[in-house]
Amino acid sequence: MSGSRYLHVIPRYYPYIGGSELYTQEIAEHLALREPDAEVAVYTTDAWDLEHFWAAGKRTVDRPSHELFNQVQLTRFPVRRFPLVSPLFYPVMRRLLTMLSAAPLPDKVALPLLQQLCRTTPLIPALGRALKKEKFDLIHATNAPFDSLIYHSWRNIKKSGGAFVITPFVHLGEPNNPQVRKYYTMRHQLEWLKQADAVITMTNLERDYIASRGVNEAKIHIVGAGVEPNAMTGGDAAAFRQKHNIAGPIVFFQGTAAYDKGTDHLVQAMQKLWQGGEYREATLVIAGPIMSHFQKFYEALPETDRARTRLLGFISPEEKRNLFAAGDVFVMPSRTDSFGIVYMEAWLNNKPVIGARAGGVPGLVTEGQDGLLVDFGDVATLADNIKSLLGDPATSARLGAAGREKVLANYTWEIVFEKVWRIYRQVLKG
User: Fold this and answer.
1) β-strands 138-142, 72-77 pairing
2) Which of 130, 135, 223, 256 is the most exposed place for a label (fewest CB within 10 A)?
């Protein structure tokens, strides 16, 4: 496909590093290497903190708005807000969209309204204007809840006749609770999936769900995400322990510290272990961006529990490697993950993992074989599982080794990119 113009559209991008951000970065950079004569571009925003999309005063990316980074043309567009009603506008509009989507209106009435209203969630007018001027052979959009980015991508392709690929990262939430997934599968979002040339999912669970909502199964491809083994192994465990003054067992979390990620429940589970006395010397390490509501939750904890916790915030890749080398049990009992690259990063370091029976995690973590699963919010069982792994090094080692084998066989970036590359070739030829 020499000479093709590719665009990847994503809410945030490097130097911010999260699961979907890394997914897009790896695909874009591998594509630039595979097709040196092609133009590979990324459109994203200036957001660093997730809350920047709806609240002022949050961090933004301190880099040029246009730059060539690892052979990828990168453009960042500013997030805007309606001044008088922000930050309430964004959550209120999201709620309004779900209500309109569920209303007993025919599609010919509801869809145009939803398509127009969703352009404000989030509000990135410069990105929309840029997409009106450009023509691409293929646009790959990601992250279903960020409606405006996908809307403008979809509109561009409808007019230009290029190929449209979407990775929605549908967060299924708890099996019997639609609270999370309703924000990912509104009528206009499903319409984009139905009209796409290809839909890339993380797991069979995500594939099956969107197929049940009317998306043609023939165009759905289970790809998953990847990891780079050399980038996530070889950390200095001793250096991490010395830096943070930790001697005993380490239970660790890497991700956005938030209720939906299960971070509150992890803290409460550790409190049970500390109160029990047997693992009073265990330390909880929480690394990654911190949402405001979790910060308040943490600050209200007893001083003794905060002393047993290391709340690190966003850490460098080097310190992350050191943490994964030093940690004993990785725990992220989240209900808002479509996959979970961090579980694989833990496995590469031969660490056992604990996740939740929610979202796409059960499609990645095989319970009892390479990790343990709990119901979202089940603090008592979570505490028991952490205790059992800390007290059984042989089982922990077996689970971690099985996970590492799974990753190396299925989920390196080379393997994942080849799947995406075949999809690109297929839709461009079709």
Assistant:
1) unpaired
2) 135
CA distances for 64 relative to 29, 46, 398, 422, angstroms: 19, 9, 46, 33
**Average confidence score pLDDT of the chain:** 95
User: What global pTM score does this model have?
Assistant: 0.91
Residue type, 178: P
In whole angstroms, give the CA distance from residue 63 to residue 79.
15
The predicted pLDDT at position 79 comes to 95
- Give strand pairing partners of 6: 40, 138
Burial class for 158, CB neighbours closer than 10 Å (0-12, 13-18, 19+): exposed
Output the furthest CA–CA distance in the chain (Å, rounded): 65
Delineate the domains of the chain, giving CATH numbers in brackets: 5-226+412-429 (3.40.50.2000), 229-410 (3.40.50.2000)
Which two structure tokens, joined as six digits, stand for 118?
A: 């969703």
Q: In terms of Cα–Cα distance, which of 140, 227, 137, 155 is closest to 191? A: 155
Helix, strand, coil % over all residues of the chain, rounded to 5: 45, 15, 35
> Scanning the structure block, which residue is given the tokens 């939430």?
173
State phi, psi for 329 to the nearest 5 degrees: -140, 125
300's tokens: 């209200």
pLDDT, one tens digit per residue, over 241-251 is 999 999 999 99
**pLDDT-above-70 percentage for the chain:** 98
**Which residue shows structure tokens 């429940």?**
265
Encoded tokens for 48: 């660093």
Q: Can you give the pLDDT at residue 15?
A: 94
State pLDDT tens for residues 208-236.
Answer: 999 999 999 999 999 999 999 999 999 99
Question: Is the sign of the CA dihedral 365, 253, 28, 336 positive or negative?
Answer: positive
User: pLDDT digit string (tens) for 230-273?
Assistant: 999 999 999 999 999 999 999 999 999 999 999 999 999 999 99
3-state secondary structure of 170: coil
The pLDDT of residue 403: 98
**pLDDT exceeds cutoff 60 at 85:** no
- Phi/psi for 286 (5° steps) reads -120, 115
Residue recorded with tokens 């561009």 = 156
What is the Cβ-side half-sphere exposure of residue 139, based on CA atoms within 13 angstroms? 27
Task: Give me the residue label for tokens 């069979």.
Answer: 204
